[in-house]
């Protein structure tokens, strides 16, 4: 059963007071509560990621939200669906986190690009960086009939990055309406505000997102390019890195390509700058690489492992998310750090 159909079956069951698991959960049965929420866990986690821009923060927020829901289950009277009530709890939990932590950023948000390779760039530890999202459990279609975005479109890097230019209330309203298909009146109840305020927040949010998100989504591009060709592009990128082949790398890129590497502040725009960085740093300056293909944010991605003499192995280094325009790579976002690998189910090292 798909996530969507599972969620709908849960909603239908939860609307009636006779639902046995709901009655048991209200009576303190933790197993019954787990059975109620498990079909919705993946989509709730994706919602928390969109709100917070970090898979680790989404883990914490979802755990907190489900704990709040468990403790407050007696307040759920069954007038609406269990799904909408859980989204209310999750959204309010995320809004508390947004208020405490602020928004997340990518290097392109912080300053101009560099014309030449910056060697020895130090990570910025005082910036809350946007992180990648392991999307293996997401479906392909919308979560609700009225939703504008597909599930995978709604975790694409450009969309999530654009969301983090919005205040928390606008971010929540846009996600609840456009991605999850709730009505403005339902959202007003969920966010404890008026329908007028929700509509105003939606109008402002749509303007900002429209300015920052390409009209052609990655999902549309990937469908047009086709799975076989996408795999070839990913393999070509990986092989160019492993062989230190600058010409092969450049042949894969658009003229206006960008390459960024959070948590490093420096980023590169245009074929000349990106080629200079690639040649001086990953292709010749880092050492020996190995790679595994993966998928992140609904996009093709490559997990990079760098040889470490002390460990005698290739250690997890970065998740490289590729944004395609046609059959070329228009953006490379390299999320540095082994902590990103665990949510993807990737090994910490390779022999």
Secondary-structure-based class equals alpha+beta
CATH architecture type of the domain at 218-350:
Roll
How much helix is in the residues?
40-55%
The CATH topology name of the domain at 218-350 reads Nuclear Transport Factor 2, Chain: A
| Cα-based radius of gyration, to the nearest Å | 22 Å
Shape: globular
What average pLDDT do the residues reach? 93
CATH top-level class of the domain at 218-350? Alpha Beta
The total count of strands amounts to 7
Strand content: 15-25%
- Return the string of H and E elements: HHHHHHHHHHHHEEHEEEEE
Spatial gap, N to C terminus: 38 Å
Low-confidence stretches: 1-18
Oligomer category: single chain
The major β-sheet equals:
7 strands, mixed
Number of H- or I-type helical stretches: 13
Family: Belongs to the sigma-70 factor family. ECF subfamily.
Subunit structure: Interacts transiently with the RNA polymerase catalytic core formed by RpoA, RpoB, RpoC and RpoZ (2 alpha, 1 beta, 1 beta' and 1 omega subunit) to form the RNA polymerase holoenzyme that can initiate transcription.
Domain SnoaL-like: 235-332
Protein name: Sigma-70 family RNA polymerase sigma factor
Task: Kindly describe this structure.
- This is Sigma-70 family RNA polymerase sigma factor.
- Interacts transiently with the RNA polymerase catalytic core formed by RpoA, RpoB, RpoC and RpoZ (2 alpha, 1 beta, 1 beta' and 1 omega subunit) to form the RNA polymerase holoenzyme that can initiate transcription.
- Keywords: Sigma factor, Transcription, Transcription regulation.
- It holds the Pfam family Sigma70_r4_2.
- Residues 36-103 form the RNA polymerase sigma-70 region domain.
- By secondary structure, the chain is an alpha+beta fold.
- Among the domains are: 1-102, RNA polymerase sigma factor, region 2, helix turn helix motif (Rna Polymerase Sigma Factor, Chain: A, Orthogonal Bundle); 218-350, Nuclear Transport Factor 2, Chain: A (Roll), CATH 3.10.450.50.
- 47% of the residues lie in helices and 15% in strands.
- It has helices at residues 3-14, 20-26, 30-52, 55-71, 82-101, 157-163, 168-179, 184-190, 195-212, 218-225, 227-243, 246-251, 271-280, and strands at 253-260, 267-269, 289-296, 299-308, 313-325, 328-336, 349-350.
- Strands 1, 2, 3, 4, 5, 6 and 7 form a 7-stranded mixed sheet that branches.
- The protein is globular.
- The relative contact order is 0.11.
